[in-house]
Every structure is written in structure tokens, then in C-alpha cells.
Amino acid sequence: xxxxxxxxxxxxxxxxxxxxGQEINLTFEARNTENAQLLALDSVFVxxxxxxxxxxxxxxxxxxxxxxxxxxxxxxxDPTTILELxxxxxxxxxxxxxxxVKLGEASILKIIASNNRGIQxxxxxxxxxxxxxxxxxxxxxxGLLLLSxxxxxxxxxxxxxxxxxxxxxxxxTYLGTEKIQPFYxxx
Length: 187
Fold this sequence. Notes:
- With 187 residues, the chain is mainly β.
- It has 2 domains: 50 residues, no CATH class; 96 residues, Immunoglobulin-like, CATH 2.60.40.1930.
- It is built from no helices and 14 strands.
- A 4-stranded antiparallel sheet has the order 7-8-11-14, with no helix packed on it. A 4-stranded antiparallel sheet has the order 10-9-12-13, with no helix packed on it.
- It starts with 19 loop residues before the first strand and ends in a 9-residue tail after the last strand.
């Protein structure tokens, strides 16, 4: 009689902003704890809790390739860019983070923080002149967040890993305009 063993392994992946346009290969293998020999795996079930797309891998040496697509494509020299959501700081967040939006023209701007199920947690909208506008976002929901900046002509989004330790409520506060440039650029 062949006994079926199940093992559960939790892998949390967090990617820094500078890893773009690459991929990550995850190789799954099992070893006998008594003699360290490799064991053949029948299958590996990979559950994606952040965006769906669960996967079942088969074979003795299952490999999962993850395309890495975090961050935003930013082109500061493009004169047609009307809206640019800059990378937030800090990310991962402790529940409070700063987000800056660069507007190429005066516009009605809506800032929305949503959870990984697409449910809006908090939003702020208003009319803003062209320039760099900064906001403080406080969010007490744990997990992956999607921050969106939306005008009538464009939208821009960025993912944030949120582990609230300092935020006790949900709020977006306008901090004003800034003249400084971001200290890094995601390309």
C-alpha cells in the first residue's frame, strides 16, 4: 500500500522595486529526512492568494516560473504623459505611506486604495493644478493593496504590501505640492 503524504509550505514573495523585466524560477523538491535522498514528487499545488491563478505542477521535478512585473514603467522625457504615479515609500508599508502623483496638466484627480479583492478601502478626489502632488495614505487593512491615481484621460496603479502597525483607521491626506524629484526611477 502506498501512503500519500501531504506537505504544506508557505512561501511569501516580496520583490524590490528595482527587479523589473526578469523572472524567478521556483524548483520544488523533497528529501527524505532520514537519509537525505531526493524523493519524486507526484504534484505540487501552488495557491496564489494575491491575484488568483492557482497552479498544479506535475512531475518528479516541478518548476514554477514567475514573470516579475512589479513597479511602473516611467518615462520622464515623454511630453504626452499627463499622469504619473511615483513609487510609494515605504513599500512594504507599516500602514502609513507617502504617495506622489505627477500631473502634466490641471485635472480632477482621484486617489484610491483598494484591497487585493478590488474592494475600495479609502479614496480622495479633487481638482489639482499641473505639478507634483503628494499624499499620505493611512490604511489599516493587512495584505496587498492597489493604489490607483485616476484622471479622465489616464490611470496609473502600483502595488503595496501593507502590514499595518501604525495605522488605526483609513484616510488619505493631501500634503501639498513638492518641487523635488524622486530619488529613484523604475524603468
